[in-house]
Amino acid sequence: RGHLTGSLIHLIHERHRAIYGETEDMPTLCHRPDRETSGVLLTAKDQISRTRVGKQFESRTIDKTYLALAVGEIEGESGVMDQPLGKALGSEVRLKMGVRVDCDGLPSKTEWQIARRLPGHTLVQLHPLTGRQHQLRVHLAAMGHPIVGDKLYGPDEQLFQRAADGELDGEDLRLLELPRQALHNHRLAFRSPASGEWVEVVSPLAADMHQHLEARR
Question: How far apart are CA 44 and CA 105, in angstroms?
Answer without folding.
Answer: 32
